[in-house]
Amino acid sequence: MIDTPPVLAVTDAQVLANLCDGTVLVVRSGQTEKEAAIKAKDLLAKSKAKILGVVLNNKPVRKDDYYYSSYYGTE
Question: For 14-55, what is each residue's pLDDT tens digit?
């Protein structure tokens, strides 16, 4: 695994991304603007990065966001 500086800050991520087997773009909830995330994805794609997906980091979690069920019907 290689962790790079932000895609929009310097070109390190773009240069290294096309040398890796896959790339995961990490965006911060409530801080990364939608347009910035799209631009970062476009820059990675132009550098021939194999984008595997996106991780949304620091998403606030509320208690009612959780859902639990028992797969076997026992608790």
Answer: 999 989 999 999 999 999 999 999 999 999 999 999 999 999
**pLDDT confidence of residue 65:** 65
Q: Determine how many CB atoms are found less than 10 A away from the CB of residue 43.
A: 16
Give the CA angle between residues 19, 37, 2 to the nearest 5°. 30
Q: Would you say 4 and 13 are in contact if contact means Cβ atoms under 8 Å apart? A: yes
Tell me, rounded to whole angstroms, the distance of Cα 22 from its chain centroid: 12
Q: Which two tokens stand for residue 17?
A: 């991304």
DSSP-derived secondary structure for 21-58: S-EEEEEETTTS-HHHHHHHHHHHHHTT--EEEEEEES
Pairing state of beta strands 51-57 and 23-28?
Answer: parallel
In the chain, domain spans: 12-58
